[in-house]
Design goal:
- Keywords: Activator, ATP-binding, Cytoplasm, DNA-binding, Nitrogen fixation, Nucleotide-binding, Phosphoprotein, Repressor, Transcription, Transcription regulation, Two-component regulatory system.
- One of its GO terms (biological process) is regulation of DNA-templated transcription.
- Helix 1 crosses helix 5.
- The strands form 6 sheets. Strands 2-1-3-4-5 form a 5-stranded parallel β-sheet, with helices on both faces.
- With 482 residues, the chain is of the alpha/beta class.
- It has 4 domains: 121 residues, Response regulator (Rossmann fold); 173 residues, P-loop containing nucleotide triphosphate hydrolases (Rossmann fold); 82 residues, Helicase, Ruva Protein, domain 3 (Orthogonal Bundle), CATH 1.10.8.60; 88 residues, Homeodomain-like (Arc Repressor Mutant, subunit A, Orthogonal Bundle).
- The protein contains 21 helices and 18 strands.
- The structure holds adenosine-5'-triphosphate.
- Adenosine-5'-triphosphate binds next to helix 7 and helix 15.
Amino acid sequence: MPKLLVIDDDRTVHRLVEKTFEDTGVITISCGVAEDGLNLIRTESPDALLLDIMLREANGLELATQIRHLDPKLPIIFITAMNDSDTAIQAMSRGAYDYLLKPLNKQEVQDLVERAFDTRRLMQSPVHMQEATSTNEQGDLLVGRSQGMLDVYKKIGRVAPQDVAVLILGESGTGKELIARAIYHHSSRRNECFMAINCAALSDTLLESELFGHEKGAFTGADRRHIGKFEQCNGGTIFLDEIGDMSPSTQSKVLRLLQEQKFERVGGTETIETDVRIISATNRDLEQMIEDGEFRLDLYHRLNTFQINLPPLRERGGDIQLLLEHFLSRFNKSLKKHISGISDEAVQMLLSYPWPGNIRELQAILRKAMLMAVGPVLVPEFFPSELHGNGESVSRPAETKPVANAGEDFQQFLSELEAAGSTEMYSEALEWMERQLITRVLTATEGNQSKAAEKLGITRGSLRNKIRSLNISIDHVISSDD
Ligand SMILES: Nc1ncnc2c1ncn2[C@@H]1O[C@H](COP(=O)(O)OP(=O)(O)OP(=O)(O)O)[C@@H](O)[C@H]1O
């Protein structure tokens, strides 16, 4: 369970934070004196810290420096009065995680602390490679002993200690983020920060602001200065995911940063120097994008000092079985199930499936099968129908059902869930509706994602993420309209 420490001499802040996290599984510990706070960091190892910048007997900025010596990876969120945001901004450029203005808003506190927990997990939880370690070690495990994965481990070992940019290429769901974290954990920057940014999930303006920061008034809504990740993570590692989705303007700014380690905040003139290692990833064909004039060749060369190609799951042979065992044991714990194994027929069926969504799809399918399962062994009937073919077809009945009958189908779907004794009806029903909606709009736009995103009122990146997480096959959607 994640632990949150609050150091603030204002008891109303303690109460608000405790109220915000009651019944959420987060353990909150509060104190009002700096010395007590330092002791609690030593004894309790919290996962995030809310720190008053104006403690009565201590200066929050100086205290933060002492805290960084104790635990360099503890995300510190400053709490500051409305009229002192300059100090908070100063704290950010010295590596604080973020800041909150008083009066505190419960939702903002919750959102930010949850993000800080995620960042802490990414930095803290080591990634082990299966060839070298036993499965009992703490942290995440990179499962796989296929030749393709052994080559990847070798490359990680070779490149991690060299302070160079790394480009990770591979289909969606093949584990690119896990590889980026493995490189970070084996690098000399492992005690500095690690931040991951998904370039496809933000609009151009927001992405630039997230990376480089902005000055007050730089654009509508920029009501105060914002420190970007390149400034905040000075000395650390930044993982840029989905770099193929960066706009030309962001591409040229990132190029300058890689060439000179310098940049300006959006709307600013001050040149800021930074020292960050960039690990980037994409599932898009960058060479084709360069040919089509969509991606800068000079940026590609800078990002591509060292390249790691992740093989798709269907080319990893026995890894499928190792992954199934690994996730079976993990999901038994998280879902409180006691599934002892998978029948031979079901294993054969899983081995002959081409896994277009790779490991993320394997996780999702196994999880669902475990939820549907009655008895201790997973048999073919607990797996979705697309797995029952000969492995060549990737048809997805849920996506191709005529949407005209969506209402009736939905009722039937709910009845099936009830009959199967599902304990995840809420998320299963929402997923069904999202799939119907996105399939319908993509069909109407003939697979054009920009147009579909516009109709749906979401960013192209969010749409792409949805398509991926719902495992929607675009080709199939288009052909179902033929
Ligand atoms: N070799 C592996 N062993 C164990 N788990 C893995 C492995 N590779 C990936 N995973 C898990 O699969 C899921 C997807 O991995 P990840 O997010 O790293 O993929 P990705 O290639 O970055 O995907 P995308 O391109 O969609 O961003 C994660 O939950 C990750 O922990």
